[in-house]
User: Fold this.
Amino acid sequence: RWQSALTHYPVDENSLERAIILENLARAYQQTGEPTEALHHWQSTTAVYTALQDWAKVGRVLTQQAQTYRQLGQPYQAIGLLCAPISDPVTVEVEIDTGTDIAAADENCLPESAIQITQTAEDAIAHVAALGTLSEAYRAIKAYPQALQSLQTALSETNEVSAADDIENSTHQALLHNSLGNLYKEQS
Assistant:
């Protein structure tokens, strides 16, 4: 039905309705085990929200897109979307492999990265989710110090989330603690 609904909006139309349909399609493809198709729809969703200048949504969708890259076994792509460290790609891989702390703080990420966008948009829940996803991507490439740094930052930020976001925040806290346990287990 979402595919059918999408045909009512021209490809070059940047409307909130089209973005919502694309987002729903991406989630559906991801949940049905079609990450490549999901990725295509996440990218289209990002383009629409960017055109609409809905930066909070852009940050959230970039995080979803990064999770899909991680699912596809492409953690470097995920790291690029989440943080895009201020460095060239060749240097990034060398620095990660040698354990140099390239993503110790948000200021080490480019402005167009999910981490910076969610920070600028003051979307605390999305920022925590982006940090958690970044940690998982770092863990996938065995960059344990960076993974731990991202997790610790995310966990400390969950303490600052407003009461209105308690349920979503509790879910993120549980996921972050689970990731922390997995990180320590894998590191040992």
User: Anything to note?
Assistant: Residues 87 and 102 are 9 Å apart (CA to CA). DSSP finds ten helices and no strands in the chain. Residues 88-105 have pLDDT under 50 and may be disordered. The two ends are 47 Å apart (CA to CA).
